[in-house]
Amino acid sequence: SNNWLERKGALEILSVASQGCFLYLRDHLNEFLPVLKAGFSDPQIQVRMTACVTLATFCEFLQQPVIEKH
What we know:
Blueprint: H1 4-20, H2 22-27, H3 29-39, H4 45-61, H5 63-69
Helix pairs in contact: 1-3, 1-4, 3-4
């Protein structure tokens, strides 16, 4: 999206979903990790900060599956 608020919102949704729907996300990490990775190079600082928070949440709730993928 060209709208940074939408990009930030997408990452926030992934963060929240990883807490309650980690089994689903675990099975679809290949689809979601590129979105997260793109957030780290976003021109908007708020999006980059949200990507960091989302990664921390992934590490808490999806630690083993993330390690296995990377």
